[in-house]
Protein backbone atom coordinates (compact mmCIF):
# COMPACT_ATOMS: atom_id res chain seq x y z
CA UNK A 1 0.00 0.00 0.00
CA UNK A 2 1.41 3.45 -0.90
CA UNK A 3 2.46 5.67 1.96
CA UNK A 4 2.23 9.42 2.13
CA UNK A 5 5.55 11.07 2.91
CA UNK A 6 5.91 14.26 4.97
CA UNK A 7 5.55 16.37 1.80
CA UNK A 8 2.32 14.74 0.67
CA UNK A 9 3.71 12.48 -2.09
CA UNK A 10 2.97 8.78 -2.30
CA UNK A 11 5.49 6.04 -2.89
CA UNK A 12 4.80 2.33 -2.92
CA UNK A 13 7.56 0.87 -0.66
CA UNK A 14 7.82 -2.38 -2.66
CA UNK A 15 8.13 -0.55 -5.97
CA UNK A 16 10.64 1.88 -4.46
CA UNK A 17 12.78 -1.02 -3.18
CA UNK A 18 12.65 -2.60 -6.67
CA UNK A 19 13.71 0.71 -8.21
CA UNK A 20 16.65 1.03 -5.80
CA UNK A 21 17.71 -2.49 -6.78
CA UNK A 22 18.39 -1.19 -10.29
CA UNK A 23 21.29 0.84 -8.92
CA UNK A 24 24.45 -1.28 -8.65
CA UNK A 25 26.52 -0.45 -5.61
CA UNK A 26 29.75 -1.56 -4.07
CA UNK A 27 29.67 -3.70 -0.96
CA UNK A 28 31.38 -2.74 2.29
CA UNK A 29 31.67 -4.16 5.76
CA UNK A 30 31.71 -1.51 8.47
CA UNK A 31 33.71 -2.68 11.49
CA UNK A 32 33.80 -0.99 14.88
CA UNK A 33 34.73 -1.80 18.49
CA UNK A 34 31.99 -3.39 20.59
CA UNK A 35 31.87 -4.45 24.23
CA UNK A 36 32.95 -8.01 23.34
CA UNK A 37 35.42 -7.26 20.51
CA UNK A 38 35.20 -6.01 16.95
CA UNK A 39 31.71 -6.00 15.42
CA UNK A 40 30.71 -5.53 11.81
CA UNK A 41 27.86 -5.21 9.38
CA UNK A 42 27.48 -5.34 5.62
CA UNK A 43 26.53 -1.99 4.09
CA UNK A 44 26.07 -0.93 0.48
CA UNK A 45 25.03 2.64 1.34
CA UNK A 46 28.49 4.26 1.45
CA UNK A 47 29.52 7.52 -0.19
CA UNK A 48 32.23 10.14 -0.24
CA UNK A 49 31.11 13.50 1.11
CA UNK A 50 34.06 15.89 1.21
CA UNK A 51 37.76 16.10 0.30
CA UNK A 52 38.53 18.95 2.72
CA UNK A 53 38.11 17.69 5.34
CA UNK A 54 38.02 14.09 4.11
CA UNK A 55 34.55 12.81 5.04
CA UNK A 56 32.57 9.69 4.13
CA UNK A 57 28.98 8.68 4.86
CA UNK A 58 27.42 5.34 5.79
CA UNK A 59 23.70 4.71 6.19
CA UNK A 60 22.78 2.20 8.89
CA UNK A 61 19.45 0.88 10.18
CA UNK A 62 18.82 2.91 13.32
CA UNK A 63 17.38 -0.12 15.17
CA UNK A 64 20.59 -2.15 14.70
CA UNK A 65 23.45 -2.37 17.22
CA UNK A 66 25.63 -0.51 14.73
CA UNK A 67 22.96 2.16 14.32
CA UNK A 68 23.16 2.81 18.03
CA UNK A 69 26.97 2.62 18.27
CA UNK A 70 28.25 4.40 15.16
CA UNK A 71 28.80 8.08 15.67
CA UNK A 72 30.32 7.40 19.09
CA UNK A 73 33.18 5.02 18.19
CA UNK A 74 35.85 4.85 15.48
CA UNK A 75 34.97 2.65 12.51
CA UNK A 76 36.48 1.23 9.34
CA UNK A 77 34.87 0.91 5.93
CA UNK A 78 36.23 -2.30 4.37
CA UNK A 79 35.54 -2.22 0.61
CA UNK A 80 35.03 -5.83 -0.46
CA UNK A 81 36.66 -7.58 -3.42
CA UNK A 82 34.76 -9.77 -5.89
CA UNK A 83 35.76 -12.98 -4.11
CA UNK A 84 34.48 -11.89 -0.70
CA UNK A 85 30.78 -12.74 -1.07
CA UNK A 86 30.90 -15.13 1.91
CA UNK A 87 32.29 -12.33 4.08
CA UNK A 88 29.46 -10.01 2.99
CA UNK A 89 26.87 -12.69 3.83
CA UNK A 90 28.54 -13.38 7.21
CA UNK A 91 28.37 -9.73 8.30
CA UNK A 92 24.83 -9.38 6.89
CA UNK A 93 23.68 -11.98 9.43
CA UNK A 94 23.52 -14.87 6.97
CA UNK A 95 25.60 -18.03 6.88
CA UNK A 96 28.33 -17.68 9.50
CA UNK A 97 31.98 -18.24 8.71
CA UNK A 98 33.95 -20.37 11.15
CA UNK A 99 36.78 -17.85 11.03
CA UNK A 100 37.25 -14.27 9.81
CA UNK A 101 40.74 -13.17 8.71
CA UNK A 102 41.91 -9.74 9.88
CA UNK A 103 44.77 -7.46 8.82
CA UNK A 104 47.23 -6.38 11.48
CA UNK A 105 47.00 -2.65 10.71
CA UNK A 106 44.06 -0.24 11.03
CA UNK A 107 43.49 -0.56 14.75
CA UNK A 108 42.28 -4.16 14.49
CA UNK A 109 39.24 -3.30 12.36
CA UNK A 110 40.54 -4.12 8.85
CA UNK A 111 39.41 -7.36 7.20
CA UNK A 112 42.02 -9.28 5.18
CA UNK A 113 41.88 -9.19 1.38
CA UNK A 114 39.74 -6.10 0.82
CA UNK A 115 40.15 -3.67 -2.10
CA UNK A 116 40.48 -0.66 0.16
CA UNK A 117 40.11 0.52 3.74
CA UNK A 118 38.87 3.81 5.15
CA UNK A 119 39.50 4.33 8.87
CA UNK A 120 37.25 6.96 10.44
CA UNK A 121 36.60 8.91 13.60
CA UNK A 122 32.99 9.96 14.22
CA UNK A 123 32.15 13.37 12.72
CA UNK A 124 28.34 13.63 12.98
CA UNK A 125 25.05 11.69 12.92
CA UNK A 126 21.89 12.71 11.08
CA UNK A 127 18.31 11.50 10.89
CA UNK A 128 17.65 9.37 7.82
CA UNK A 129 14.15 8.05 8.54
CA UNK A 130 14.48 4.41 9.56
CA UNK A 131 18.25 4.79 9.11
CA UNK A 132 20.90 6.99 10.68
CA UNK A 133 23.42 8.74 8.42
CA UNK A 134 26.87 8.62 9.97
CA UNK A 135 29.63 10.89 8.72
CA UNK A 136 33.18 9.81 9.46
CA UNK A 137 36.36 11.88 9.35
CA UNK A 138 38.91 9.83 7.41
CA UNK A 139 42.01 9.20 9.52
CA UNK A 140 43.69 6.44 7.51
CA UNK A 141 43.44 4.54 4.23
CA UNK A 142 44.91 1.61 2.36
CA UNK A 143 44.36 0.73 -1.29
CA UNK A 144 44.63 -2.68 -2.96
CA UNK A 145 43.86 -3.89 -6.47
CA UNK A 146 41.32 -6.18 -8.07
CA UNK A 147 37.65 -6.31 -8.98
CA UNK A 148 34.95 -5.09 -6.58
CA UNK A 149 32.06 -7.06 -5.16
CA UNK A 150 28.79 -5.46 -6.28
CA UNK A 151 25.19 -5.62 -5.09
CA UNK A 152 22.52 -5.49 -7.80
CA UNK A 153 18.84 -6.49 -7.80
CA UNK A 154 19.05 -8.16 -4.42
CA UNK A 155 22.16 -10.23 -5.10
CA UNK A 156 25.92 -10.13 -5.26
CA UNK A 157 27.76 -9.91 -8.57
CA UNK A 158 31.04 -8.68 -10.04
CA UNK A 159 32.09 -6.66 -13.06
CA UNK A 160 32.73 -8.86 -16.09
CA UNK A 161 35.96 -8.13 -17.96
CA UNK A 162 37.36 -6.02 -15.12
CA UNK A 163 41.00 -5.08 -15.78
CA UNK A 164 43.48 -6.75 -13.45
CA UNK A 165 45.84 -3.76 -13.40
CA UNK A 166 44.97 -0.25 -12.26
CA UNK A 167 43.13 1.34 -15.17
CA UNK A 168 43.86 4.78 -16.60
CA UNK A 169 43.18 7.59 -14.20
CA UNK A 170 41.75 10.87 -15.36
CA UNK A 171 43.63 14.03 -14.37
Automatic annotation (TrEMBL):
GO terms for molecular function: FMN binding; riboflavin reductase (NADPH) activity. Keywords: Oxidoreductase. It comes from the Bacteria. InterPro entries: Flavin_Rdtase-like_dom, NADH-dep_flavin_reductase, Split_barrel_FMN-bd. SUPFAM superfamilies: FMN-binding split barrel. Residues 20-158 form the Flavin reductase like domain. PANTHER family: FLAVIN REDUCTASE, FMN REDUCTASE (NADH) RUTF. This is Flavin reductase like domain-containing protein.
Amino acid sequence: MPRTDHRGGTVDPTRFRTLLGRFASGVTVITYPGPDGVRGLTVNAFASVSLRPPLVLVSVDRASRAGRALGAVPFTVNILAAGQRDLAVHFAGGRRLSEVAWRGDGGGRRLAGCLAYVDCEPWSRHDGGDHVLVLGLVTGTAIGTGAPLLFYQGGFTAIADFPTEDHDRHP
